[in-house]
Amino acid sequence: MEFFTVLPLTQLSGVMPKTCTLIRAHPFKPWWQRNSKPARFRCQKMYVPGFGEASPEKKAANNMHNFFTYIAVRIVGAQLESYNTEAHKDLMEFLDKNSLNDGDKFCAALMRESPRHKGLAMRILEVRSAYCKNDFEWDNLQRLASQMADESDTKLMRDYVLETSHDPRSD
Amino acid sequence: MEFFTVLPLTQLSGVMPKTCTLIRAHPFKPWWQRNSKPARFRCQKMYVPGFGEASPEKKAANNMHNFFTYIAVRIVGAQLESYNTEAHKDLMEFLDKNSLNDGDKFCAALMRESPRHKGLAMRILEVRSAYCKNDFEWDNLQRLASQMADESDTKLMRDYVLETSHDPRSD
């Protein structure tokens, strides 16, 4: 599944940062008492180009949505395996023939396969929604991503230094 | 970029749910006063098979990490374009030759290209970390993903009903 499409970086027609605030020199003075200092923007966030009218958060949410469909299919598959082998077989056979890359497309096709498959699709939709809202640990995701950024930085720089530094024992 | 590898659903040797608690019938009674009720598990979360020793959160964090590298490259590219066209050209040329699918691999290769490229790589690492920790709106991601689950459910079911229902005007 494509996590994101790498757009050319030269395509910089993006949105303005979301938290830009127009700061005026004297916001409460009438105009004739104001000096000629120009209005300026105070932007607290970095400008991310190339997302058009969407945002990085929207793009990430879209991919999380597909990820949750994948998780829901796994959960339902595991539940059915033990007590409804027929439905489990139906789901596995459908999975062999259809890609899970686009979650909604997969569910739409599953609904239309047969009335039995429709039941499976409804269950997957229910599990997906419940997993996203109740089970998935969003705080944990944020903590892990932040930790990963730190650990990767350290590893990349350590590897580089070890590779390029002069070893005095080799003299 | 592969958001996740679709593992076969039959591979169900997963981890136990994270919030399973062993509940005993009389936790504070000595054993000779206890009756014979067996210990039981109270699991609040759905069992997600097939992630081995990792977790769905870890998998998602790994993909967010690569996404942040992509975002950082875009941010640095946009910053350089206006005031350091030489460095911008270096980055664009390097991007043409190297894939951004694996963020850490991309940064490691950029560091080793030349001392000038190393400066670019250090800047990308710094921006990536700052973006992940300060700029990215995690709450917004959760809200959008949850909203997307609801909207998709409604859309899928509405489309199905419209497609399969009997139109009385056609009689």
Describe the overall structure.
2 copies of one chain form a homodimer. The first copy, chain A, has a domain at 56-135: Non-ribosomal Peptide Synthetase Peptidyl Carrier Protein, Chain A (Orthogonal Bundle). By secondary structure, chain A is mostly helical. Chain A has 5 helices and 2 strands. Chain A has helices spanning 56-83, 85-97, 103-113, 115-135, 138-164, and strands at residues 21-23, 40-42. In chain A, strands 1-2 form a two-stranded antiparallel ribbon. Helices cover 58% and strands 4% of the residues of chain A. The two termini of chain A are 51 Å apart. Chain A is elongated, with a radius of gyration of 26 Å. In chain A, helix 1 crosses helix 2, helix 1 packs across helix 4 and helix 3 (103-113) runs antiparallel to helix 4 (115-135). Chains A and B meet through helix 1, helix 2, helix 3, helix 4 and helix 5 of A and helix 1, helix 2, helix 3, helix 4 and helix 5 of B. Chains A, B: One of its GO terms (biological process) is ribulose bisphosphate carboxylase complex assembly. Chains A, B: Keywords: Carbon dioxide fixation, Chaperone, Photosynthesis. Chains A, B: One of its GO terms (molecular function) is protein folding chaperone. Chains A, B: InterPro entries: Chaperonin_RbcX_sf (IPR038052), Chaperonin_RcbX (IPR003435).
